[in-house]
Specification:
Two copies of one chain form a homodimer. With 203 residues, the first copy, chain A, is of the alpha/beta class. Chain A has two domains: 49 residues, Helicase, Ruva Protein, domain 3 (Orthogonal Bundle), CATH 1.10.8; 98 residues, Dna Topoisomerase Vi A Subunit, Chain: A, domain 2. A four-stranded parallel beta sheet of chain A has the order 4-3-5-6. Chain A has a two-stranded antiparallel ribbon with strand order 1-2. In chain A, strand 3, helix 4 and strand 4 form a beta-alpha-beta unit. In chain A, helix 1 crosses helix 2. The termini of chain A are far apart.
Chain lengths: 203, 203
């Protein structure tokens, strides 16, 4: 005898497939939805359906967008000569929030990670090289803004090497490392502090 | 200019309406689903839709079920003279897992909580009293298995008072309080320890 209605068990399974949601949370969420008005649940289902049908990858920058090219790539006020290379679409939001970057993006959708069988061909790296060759307005600077971990570093090294081979004059920059704003020196790790010292600037 | 496609924003909003999921988690989940095969997302949407259309409340015990009466209420092998009163449908699962209870349930779907404007009329308490009067097989014992917090205690007190007024001979019991199995006495709070002492049994 199964104790839970099948519809409930199936929804719990669907929730469990999401990252960071275990059996307990999945059960809690499914039971919560039982008490929610039907139209709100319908809207949730509709939004899930629309996720795939109403979004596309921008053919230029590979960002998730409503139209192709995306609103950033098609914005004439943005500087097309600078391209910031990032791992995930969410990183676009983070950088846009600073309001300090007016160039274009290139989303890799991951990083090179040999331990998990992700090589250069599994992410949108080749598209970046192609873009460098074919974009109407020549690209002058590439900012590498990968995450500061092993995979990010490996990806940055690979991209740099390939880009240099393709165009020796291209300016390739990386985000600065150093103390986060508001951080205590006492609690900073040695590597961060070393980078902060190396990257010190005149006051 | 909105940065995210509308379909994505809407799904993030839907996730945010779930308990314990804030803007960051909601964004992470929505972006995760972008990389998931379409048929899995479709199945998720379908499961959400089916949640409301394929489940009913059992008219007898008010538990969430596939059919009315539910599989527990319609099981002839269960003892219909004992009814365990609980706050939430998930509590049925917890008690069934012990394998020690062979009676029926009554799900209140909440507890009396005046601070949040939940009185006896907002939960299925009246149905319990009606059930006591009308059930074919007379109920001999009511086990109050509400949560051990203020709202649970208030609900238990209210139900006890009303039941006593309706049927003075009815046996009303509560779950035992005491040390959780595996717990250190050192770390037990005073109230739990007091209850454990009061409820001590001969060895």
């Amino acid at each position: 005898m199964t104790l839970l209605p099948k519809a409930l068990t199936r929804l719990i399974e669907s929730f469990q497939q999401l990252p960071g949601i275990g059996p307990k949370s999945a059960t809690r969420l499914a039971f919560y939805l039982l008490h929610v008005p039907t139209d709100q649940v319908e809207r949730f289902a509709e939004n899930l359906r629309a996720l795939k049908s109403s979004t596309v990858l921008c053919s230029l920058c590979k960002n998730v967008a409503e139209a192709d090219p995306c609103s950033i790539c098609s914005d004439p006020s943005r500087d097309q000569t600078i391209v910031c290379v990032i791992e995930n679409p969410t990183d676009v939001l983070s950088i846009e929030k600073t309001g300090k970057f007016r160039g274009l993006y290139h989303v890799l959708h991951g990083a090179i990670d040999p331990l998990n069988n992700i090589g250069p061909d599994e992410i949108y790296i080749a598209d970046l090289f192609k873009r460098l060759r074919t974009q109407d307005v020549g690209i002058k600077e590439i900012i590498l803004a990968m995450n500061s971990n092993m995979e990010g570093e490996a990806t940055a090294m690979y991209v740099t090497k390939q880009l240099k081979a393709q165009n020796a004059k291209l300016k390739i920059t990386r985000l600065a490392h150093g103390l986060p704003v508001g951080a205590d020196i006492e609690y900073a790790d040695e590597v961060t502090l070393t980078r902060a010292l190396e990257g010190r600037r005149e006051y």
